[in-house]
Specification:
Distance between the termini: 30 Å
Helix content: 10-25%
GO biological process, one term: pentose-phosphate shunt, non-oxidative branch
Pfam family, one: Rib_5-P_isom_A
Largest sheet: 6 strands, mixed
Strand content: 15-25%
Biased composition (Pro residues): 47-56
Protein name: ribose-5-phosphate isomerase
Family: Belongs to the ribose 5-phosphate isomerase family.
CATH topology of the domain at 210-285: Alpha-Beta Plaits
Shape: globular
Strand order of the largest sheet: 4-3-5-8-14-15
Number of strands: 15
Length: 308
């Protein structure tokens, strides 16, 4: 049996939007306009769901030091446990839920479908962040809505390509940055679920791509402008290609530019401002000051971190 310390403060109570609509002050996010979010106090907890059974591969023992003990299991099983925990802790009947994309987020979607089928959840509707997510939601029985009809999202559960210590993340390497960020920004609560391979010391630190969604018109000119920004030490850039080697086109008809770095971006907020000032940039994969809770699957268990 292995042990892992759960970091961060205990889970915040599930908000009751009808009882307290007051917004929570966020740190300024230069990549998006300000929006209403949760407050850290004053909410009454919603009536809890009946305690769901833990996955058969997971065993939790009580401990006064908040150390959670897990049987040694595969990382895929723990990714599933992260998705299940996100839904069980943060999704309630009547909510509008942003449905993420990726290998970890799919477990959250499947869990919502299971609870709807069992009757433990009712009147939950989802906003899909991608076409694969839309297809999975239909398959498992999660009703979908359009953001134009809902506007405000109670909680979004999504994955990440990179997770920094302060819970800023990189997303969008698969494309569709604009849609993911629009749903995330509209959310009162953003829960990131990922595995430990996504943890970095700073954004851009994995040496994987930081994606930027740009217009097709003038895309090479936009690339040159971005590479010339003094706050970005880009060592290489390329446009995302599809399986046939052709230019990948996002769901909104745009190209995705990949930026590569030898070291973490020194000032992500300055980088965000500079990129958004380039005409032709629609959005980028730096999701700053957005994630409220991160549930990370490690080889020995789950860790839960809250934005301070």
């Amino acid at each position: 049996v292995a042990s892992v310390v759960v970091v961060g403060h205990p889970r915040r109570p599930i908000p009751d939007p009808a009882s307290d609509p007051a917004p929570r002050q966020r740190v300024e996010n230069t990549s998006r306009p300000p929006h209403d979010s949760l407050v850290d106090s004053g909410f009454r907890s919603a009536p809890p769901l009946p305690p769901p059974p833990l996955p058969p591969f997971l065993r939790t023992l009580s401990s006064p030091r908040r150390i959670v003990h897990y049987a040694m299991v595969s990382i895929d099983e723990l990714k599933k446990a992260a998705g299940v925990k996100a839904v069980d802790d943060y999704v309630r009947s009547g909510m509008v839920v942003g449905l993420g994309t990726g290998s970890t987020a799919k477990f959250a979607i499947e869990r919502i479908g299971q609870l709807l089928k069992e009757g433990a959840l009712e009147d939950v509707v989802g906003l899909a962040t991608s076409k694969p997510t839309m297809e999975l939601a239909h398959k498992v029985g999660v009703p979908l809505a359009d953001i134009n009809d809902k506007g405000e999202v109670d909680v979004t559960i999504d994955g990440a390509d990179e997770v920094a210590p302060n819970l800023d993340i990189v997303k969008g390497r698969m494309g569709g940055i604009l849609r993911k960020k629009m749903i995330g920004v509209a959310s009162k609560l953003y829960v990131c679920i990922a595995d430990e391979s996504k943890l970095v010391d700073g954004l851009g630190g994995s040496k994987g791509a930081v994606p930027v969604e740009v217009t097709q018109f003038g895309h090479e000119h936009v690339e040159r402008c971005i590479r010339g920004l003094p706050c970005l030490k880009v060592v290489r850039s390329e446009f995302k290609k599809d399986a046939d080697g052709e230019m990948f086109v996002s769901p909104h008809g745009n190209f995705i530019l990949y930026l590569y770095f030898d070291e973490p971006i020194a000032d992500p907020r300055a980088a965000s401002r500079a990129m958004m000032d380039v005409v032709g940039v629609l959005d980028h994969g730096l999701f700053l000051d957005l994630v409220d809770v991160a549930i990370i699957a490690t080889k020995t268990g789950l860790t839960v971190q809250h934005r301070q």
